[in-house]
Amino acid sequence: MKFFLCVMGMVIIIEGLPYFAFPEKLKSMIKKIIETPNSTLRKTGLFLMLTGLFLVYLGKN
Hints:
Layout: H1 2-21, H2 23-35, H3 38-60
């Protein structure tokens, strides 16, 4: 459980970094995301999830 909490903490730090460091650029990026088709967002999300799963697999073995 300690390892899980450490990993979750690191994810939150990495997720929060752009909001702190580049708020103006983040706002323009969000506008672009809104204009992106749902199918493209779904494909990107699937790719990121599979990449994350692969990295977890490599880390465990």
